[in-house]
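Working notes for the structural subgroup meeting. M.R. asked for a predicted model of this chain before we commit to crystallization trials. I am recording the input and output together here so anyone reviewing the notebook later can reproduce the run.

Input as submitted:
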Amino acid sequence: MYETENKKAMRRMGQAMMATMPLQLKVQVMFKMLLAGDDDDKRRKIMEEAKQRRRFTVPRDRIEWYPTIDHHKCENCKICLEFCPKGVFSEDDKNKITVSSPYECVMLCSGCEIKCPHGAISFPDRKDFYGYVYYV
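Returned structure, recorded in token form:
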């Protein structure tokens, strides 16, 4: 089950990146992914290469794309804390999970939302943020 959840989260992150890519780059990435098959390391490398081409129309700290936590639903399972490689989440002095570094969140990533078993994490509507991203 954990493997399936990771694949779902990775697929969602990839879809978010692909949504803002120009058609030519999207076709290139899709072709490379097809050739990579089920090799997760190759697929990760392809997405990392595409990510290196991503730029923002305004500084990242002016784009309010980051998670919010519904503390009525959150049961402090710490899955989000363990999942996020950017350190967006931390524990406060009462051991509650908080969004301590919101602008470290990867633009249009919402993998932690999928990982949360309690549905406590949410993001703004991603369509409102597509205009902030372009590729070179």
